[in-house]
Amino acid sequence: MDDKFWRLLLARGFIRLSSMMFAIFFMWRLITQYNSIFIVSLIPALSIVGYVIVSIPEGYILDKFDRPKILFLSSVILLIIYIPLLFYSSLLLIYVIDLLSSVFFFISGDIFYTLIKDIVEKEKLSEAMSFNVISRSIFEIVGISLGGISAAFFPYLFPYLLVFISLLTLIISYSISSNIKTVAIEKKKEEKTEELNYSHVIKLIKYMLPALLISLVINGIFVALDVFASGIFYDILHSGALGYTAFILAFSLGTLLGGTIGNRFSEKLLNARSFALIIASFSLVFYLIVLVDFSPYIEPLYTLILGIGVSLIDIPLEALITKIIPSKIFGRTNSLIMIFINGSSPILAVVYGFISNFFSIKIIFITLGSLMLIISIPAFFIYRKLVRTREEDIKKVLQL
């Protein structure tokens, strides 16, 4: 991996860090101020809504214009979005900033994956995705820690810290623009000249639709962790911000461990049996979270296990998808894939917040665990078809 790859990871990482800080800090602040899971649930809900709205035009822009400059522009806008927190804070402002900042957070992620297609050789994509998961986990850990510590000890300094990190992001993203652009242009000159448009994107999406629907449901189930975590620790365990932070932090620690394992065994993990078994194990963890006596010391262990499993699925799948999607339509295809994967999140976040008024967290988690177990059965057959896909199969799908 060359210098361009590492700088790109760093820029993406700082954007993720600021996003995690914001979510952790304000989700705890809202549960302590309003004692309402529904009000808290709007944070993860709004964080997806904005991206869903802009994803289709954003995908087209990434395929047609200079991606590194779009990354720099996103960093500038993120800095501007966070600055009002230095002077004023209200529930409405928090929601607005959450909505707007999430748009550019997800855009930066799409830019990362489209640029990886340009600067990393196909043979090294699995290794690159493993480093991506490791980097993502490290920055999430730092972001969660800073958000939780700020909420517990110095909330008045949080806006300044958030703006400072956004400024660092801007500087790093500016430093990478010219070099990566040159590589992207040179590689595109070597590609065939077939014109690919949204009709080809739709064909690809149809081909991957069953796997995308499985991912949509699984991601929607995992939203429950974000929605109910603060409620579990504030209302049930009567714990402070640090206990809540440890619960969320353990998931990122798990993805870091999973990324390290996946770096060595990503090719061996790329099979349907592994995916189905990992998904089935998720159901067991959801049961344990609520069936074993609640304890602020044990609960983080469960999210640690979930994080490891998520990484072991993500690394080989991300490498496969990045490899088989043509570069010319990668931005558009990836944006639609993200809609499928994340599309259920804002709706379910609100639904979880609403049904928490009628059902206990224990019943909700048992139901979600059972659903995860059921999903693991069709997931085996669906992913078996996907992991056998090669670039030649995609050319047939696109009729090239």
UniProtKB/TrEMBL annotation:
<feature type="transmembrane region" description="Helical">
    <location>
        <begin position="9"/>
        <end position="31"/>
    </location>
</feature>
<dbReference type="GO" id="GO:0022857">
    <property type="term" value="F:transmembrane transporter activity"/>
</dbReference>
<keyword id="KW-1003">Cell membrane</keyword>
<feature type="transmembrane region" description="Helical">
    <location>
        <begin position="137"/>
        <end position="154"/>
    </location>
</feature>
<dbReference type="InterPro" id="IPR011701">
    <property type="entry name" value="MFS"/>
</dbReference>
<protein>
    <recommendedName>
        <fullName>Major facilitator superfamily (MFS) profile domain-containing protein</fullName>
    </recommendedName>
</protein>
<dbReference type="Pfam" id="PF07690">
    <property type="entry name" value="MFS_1"/>
</dbReference>
<feature type="transmembrane region" description="Helical">
    <location>
        <begin position="361"/>
        <end position="383"/>
    </location>
</feature>
<feature type="transmembrane region" description="Helical">
    <location>
        <begin position="37"/>
        <end position="58"/>
    </location>
</feature>
<keyword id="KW-0812">Transmembrane</keyword>
<feature type="transmembrane region" description="Helical">
    <location>
        <begin position="207"/>
        <end position="229"/>
    </location>
</feature>
<feature type="transmembrane region" description="Helical">
    <location>
        <begin position="93"/>
        <end position="116"/>
    </location>
</feature>
<dbReference type="GO" id="GO:0005886">
    <property type="term" value="C:plasma membrane"/>
</dbReference>
<feature type="transmembrane region" description="Helical">
    <location>
        <begin position="160"/>
        <end position="180"/>
    </location>
</feature>
<keyword id="KW-0472">Membrane</keyword>
<keyword id="KW-1133">Transmembrane helix</keyword>
<dbReference type="InterPro" id="IPR036259">
    <property type="entry name" value="MFS_trans_sf"/>
</dbReference>
<feature type="domain" description="Major facilitator superfamily (MFS) profile">
    <location>
        <begin position="199"/>
        <end position="400"/>
    </location>
</feature>
<feature type="transmembrane region" description="Helical">
    <location>
        <begin position="241"/>
        <end position="262"/>
    </location>
</feature>
<dbReference type="InterPro" id="IPR020846">
    <property type="entry name" value="MFS_dom"/>
</dbReference>
<feature type="transmembrane region" description="Helical">
    <location>
        <begin position="333"/>
        <end position="355"/>
    </location>
</feature>
<feature type="transmembrane region" description="Helical">
    <location>
        <begin position="70"/>
        <end position="87"/>
    </location>
</feature>
<feature type="transmembrane region" description="Helical">
    <location>
        <begin position="301"/>
        <end position="321"/>
    </location>
</feature>
<feature type="transmembrane region" description="Helical">
    <location>
        <begin position="274"/>
        <end position="295"/>
    </location>
</feature>
